[in-house]
């Protein structure tokens, strides 16, 4: 019998036409993996689910108590559960006095401290207290394989649970899964509904991705001006990808009036944060003088910085620029790159 793995916390799910949605409230998606083939298995599962449902807020502590008791009591076998044991189980629900913190922020801190199982309890409590992001973060644990085996299907189920309660983070992630057909049906319209709902709720990643959908015309009519509008909103939250795409838009004049100087403004911000594309685009701007004074020394320096970050084309640009520099200029360029320090952007990078 397995009672510990977080995999067993979430197993009762149902597929509906609009995505993966849990049966009933999230609390009732708990189930135990009783591994007996005896005929009374269903009866035992029914009783424990009834006990849990009587006080779902305390279900996590009950699970811990059951772990403590598993060596002292026979939880499955040839006999049915005794009334005495069922009474004890219900008693555990009533007598539980320790509550799990229902706060996603504290759960994230618990996770960062290395306590995965503790964070799961807190994320679960947060979800039950009304914060749908709790289920989203448990889904991320399944997606990344932290504290459990990697399981994208369960991750999708949890994202769906969170998205159904308006978690913007989950809407964006589940939307991307529909966009790419990863463990859910590929459905551009559904992807756009979810991702752009996330964007409209203020999620920076959702805003960036919704802009991409309008740029590519997937699930929505192609509209470059709308794409730029969503990227603008994401850039206000310091989303690096959105800043780079805005830079490209102003450089090319697609969706906006062409403005190389404004493009450089965005590339300069992402370059300062150490982003490879920003560094590379800034190097090209210094090479050509598009949007700022031409400077081959700085062009070489930024191309050098982009190259060590594996930006495609950056090493070739650096090598070509080297041929155009004098010996003392090359020394200056390399010294600039050697002493340069990235400054992370605040917000959703």
From TrEMBL:
InterPro entries: Sel1-like, Sel1_AlgK, TPR-like_helical_dom_sf. This is TPR repeat. PANTHER family: ERAD-ASSOCIATED E3 UBIQUITIN-PROTEIN LIGASE COMPONENT HRD3, SEL-1-LIKE PROTEIN. Pfam families: Sel1. Signal peptide: none annotated. SUPFAM superfamilies: HCP-like (SSF81901). SMART domains: SEL1. The lineage of its organism: Bacteria, Pseudomonadati, Pseudomonadota, Alphaproteobacteria, Hyphomicrobiales.
């Amino acid at each position: 019998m397995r009672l510990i793995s977080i995999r067993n916390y979430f197993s009762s799910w149902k597929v509906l036409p609009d995505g993966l949605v849990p049966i009933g409230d999230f609390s009732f998606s708990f189930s135990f993996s009783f591994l007996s083939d005896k005929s009374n298995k269903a009866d035992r599962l029914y009783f424990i689910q009834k006990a849990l449902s009587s006080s779902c807020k305390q279900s996590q502590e009950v699970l811990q108590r059951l772990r403590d008791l598993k060596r002292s009591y026979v939880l499955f076998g040839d006999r049915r559960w005794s009334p005495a044991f069922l009474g004890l189980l219900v008693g555990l629900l009533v007598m539980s006095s320790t509550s799990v913190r229902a706060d996603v922020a504290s759960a994230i801190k618990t996770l960062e401290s290395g306590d995965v199982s503790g964070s799961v309890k807190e994320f679960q409590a947060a979800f039950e207290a009304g914060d749908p992001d709790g289920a989203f973060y448990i889904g991320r644990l399944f997606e990344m394989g932290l504290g459990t085996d990697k399981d994208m299907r369960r991750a999708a189920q949890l994202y769906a649970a969170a998205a159904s309660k308006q978690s913007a983070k989950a809407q964006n992630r589940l939307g991307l899964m529909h966009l790419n057909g990863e463990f859910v049906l590929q459905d551009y319209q559904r992807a756009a509904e979810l991702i752009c709902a996330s964007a409209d709720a203020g999620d920076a990643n959702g805003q960036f991705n919704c802009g991409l959908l309008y740029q590519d015309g997937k699930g929505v009519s192609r509209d470059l001006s709308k794409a730029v509008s969503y990227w603008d909103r994401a850039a206000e939250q310091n989303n690096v990808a959105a800043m780079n795409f805005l830079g490209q838009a102003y450089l090319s004049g697609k969706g906006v009036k062409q403005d190389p100087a404004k493009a450089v403004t965005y590339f300069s911000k992402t370059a300062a944060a150490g982003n490879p594309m920003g560094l590379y685009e800034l190097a090209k701007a210094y090479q050509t003088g598009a949007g700022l004074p031409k400077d081959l020394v700085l062009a070489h320096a930024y191309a050098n910085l982009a190259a060590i970050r594996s930006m495609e084309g950056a090493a070739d640009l650096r090598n070509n620029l080297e041929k155009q520099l004098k010996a003392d200029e090359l020394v200056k360029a390399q010294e600039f790159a050697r002493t340069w320090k990235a400054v992370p952007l605040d917000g959703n990078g």
